[in-house]
Every structure is written in structure tokens, then in C-alpha cells.
Queue: 2 jobs
Job 1
Amino acid sequence: ELKVEQNPLFLSMQEGKNYTIYCNYSTTSDRLYWYRQDPGKSLESLFVLLSNGAVKQEGRLMASLDTKARLSTLHITAAVHDLSATYFCAVHNTDKLIFGTGTRLQVFP
Amino acid sequence: NAGVTQTPKFQVLKTGQSMTLQCAQDMNHNSMYWYRQDPGMGLRLIYYSASEGTTDKGEVPNGYNVSRLNKREFSLRLESAAPSQTSVYFCASSEGLASMYEQYFGPGTRLTVT
């Protein structure tokens, strides 16, 4: 059974700082997603990572995938308050998406 | 295009009551899904429908039934609600089940069972 673990579960960081969220998964997969969820809202797709070594960047967020290590990272550069949200990784396995527990990010001045 | 729509947005039920959550998509997608989201946990798949006329169980199907009414609509029914079913429910759709097809999520239904 595929398990997806994220850490940390909660992250409080100061504006301007850098940090990384980690997503580990237990079996092979051919696609990994990162989503953002604002409080009381639905999920918004951020990145789709397809292959080993894939790296995607948008604004202050950069996602990478290491399929050999079964690890994806979401790196935040020079955080701003607007990035405050919950971030989920999700791994596609046998026709289904399996979600991580989420990382709640809070950026303060 | 409205994308994926869900009704109602909020609902409060008493234990033992029944209700149906409605979901519709206008993207001509073949596959549809129902998830629940609980605090401190990611989304968990309840049921999914690969295509019109088919449904399959996900991770947490107990206490729920689904109907794929047509290609556009996929409903989730709670026959006898229990407090453990208090959750936020999300419907999603995609062109197909294969990993190449991204899922698009509705706005969610917040359900409280007292």
C-alpha cells in the first residue's frame, strides 16, 4: 500500500527566509503533484512532476523530484505572507491519487 | 466553464439522517472522484468512477454510496449519517484515470453531523 508522508506538518517562517517541505512516498510512481489550499478553499494545482530529476519553478516556489529516493521537495525562497497556505503533495499510483498529510505554512513579518 | 461544482456548500445533519451530495462537471471528463478531508490528514478517496456507468471503492468507502448519474454528474449518499462523517467533501474530475490526466477539484461541501 502506497504511503505518502510530508514534513513538517506545520511551518511558521519569517518573511524573507528560505525553507523546504519534504514529501516521501513508499512505492514507485510515475507522477507527483503539488497542490496549494487556502483556508476554506479548494485545491489549486501548483506543479506536476513527471520524471526523475524534474524541476519546476514558479515565482518563489520550486519543486523537484528524485524517483530513486522516492522524494520530492518544495522549496520556498524569500517567503512572503501571500504564500501562507497548506501545501499537499500527491502521488499517482494505480489509477488513484494518494495525498500526503499536508504542510500548513504560516509566513509572518 | 464552471469547472466542477458541488452542492450544498454547507450542511448540518443529525445522527441517522440521510443526504446526498451533488457534483457536476462541464469539462466532458470521463472520470470523477469523491474525497473527504479531515483535520491533520490529506484527502482520502471514498469512491471513484472511471467512466459513466462504473464505480469503484477507494480507501474509505464504508458508510457511503455513489451514483454516476450520467457523464456530468456523480453523487455521494450518506444513508445514515454518523458523527465520524463530519468532514469536508471534495469532488474532482479528470479526463481519465491514467496518471497523465490531472484532477480538477470542486469547492467542497462542509458537513457536520451532530
Note: The two ends of chain B are 36 Å apart (CA to CA).
Job 2
Amino acid sequence: ETGVTQTPRHLVMGMTNKKSLKCEQHLGHNAMYWYKQSAKKPLELMFVYNFKEQTENNSVPSRFSPECPNSSHLFLHLHTLQPEDSALYLCASSPRTSGGHTDTQYFGPGTRLTVL
Amino acid sequence: AQKVTQAQTEISVVEKEDVTLDCVYETRDTTYYLFWYKQPPSGELVFLIRRNSFDEQNEISGRYSWNFQKSTSSFNFTITASQVVDSAVYFCALSEAGRGADGLTFGKGTHLIIQP
């Protein structure tokens, strides 16, 4: 596997279900991100992890819970979601060199989530 | 606050025509980075180019070219001799250097349709 992979690619869940999205990067990067892409809206940054530490949470509801066990893996745990949470969830990674300079982010194919 | 505007929601051209996608940005930082990504129907965002604010040289890569003009805060993308495979949603994005790699601000995207 190369690049950034995400599983599952499609997920349908009820509002009372608990599910998890998985992201894995094979690029040796140190930063990982979750974005949400809803219809007719710009991509929204949800969470940022640098060297396994969460550095940004863009006012995301607690029904979304990220987990980053190591620099290569990122999870998004979903619990009691709402229909408006239906969207494409994209994972990205970047090198995250020191000094805070901006690195290019590389994206996975996304998980298409539908909440019934 | 940073902002990216892609005023063209959808563009449709016939194959082999040239097409330009517009991107206008707003930022208070003097050091920032601009990006273009392509999102084909499969969903994955494909990185096309990154440009920093101190490099106003235009860039050409095959049929793709980018025109960066700080005076008008624009970073436009031109596809020459378009092909059906160029059909996708194209996103322009901005990152301010002070934020490091912590998240990109995306425009709403331009849906490009290349008709055979």
C-alpha cells in the first residue's frame, strides 16, 4: 500500500450505532488530519494531530472522537450521529517538519458516510 | 482571517478548449502558501501545486499552468487543450505560515466538466 488509505470507503449507520473510520498513511509523515466535506460547503478541518498529539479541534461535536495511536494511524470514532453528519470524511497527512513551516498535505480517498 | 473564493461553481467546455479556473484569496500574513488540488469522482484530493507568497513566478507543468499575482491576490489555474480526464472538482487552498501545517482553508471548489 502506498500513500494514504481509508477504510471503509462507504458506511451507512443508524443514529444509535457506534462505528469507527480508519486512516493509515505510508508516507512516513508526522501529522495527520480529519476533514469533513459536505455537499455545497468547503472542506472543513476537524482535527489535527502532530506527532500523535492533538493540536487542533475545530469546535467539533463530542459525538466525533479522534484517536491517534501512532504517527501512521488515525481513527475517527462515531457515536449517536445525526443525519446532518452525512458527508465525505477525508483523512490527510503531512511531513510536519520543525519550525512550523507549511507542508503539503496528502489526502486519502475518503469515507462516504450516510447517517439514517 | 483567511479566506479563499472560487467564484466559478461549474464550468463546462468542449474537449481541447483552454479553460481557466479562478482563485482569489484573503490573508493578513505576508508569508503564506497557496495550493491547488484536484478531486476526481473517486473522491481523493490529488495535490497539484504549492506556491509560497515570495515566489510569484508562474509555473507550467505539461498542460497545466498557474498564474500567481499578489497585486490582485489571485492564483489562477489554466488547463490547455483540455481532456475528458480533466473533469473533476478543483480546489484552491491557503495556509498562513503562522499556522504551520495546521490546516488548510479551502475554497468551495470549481466543478470542471470536459465534454467530448
Note: The mean pLDDT of chain A is 89.
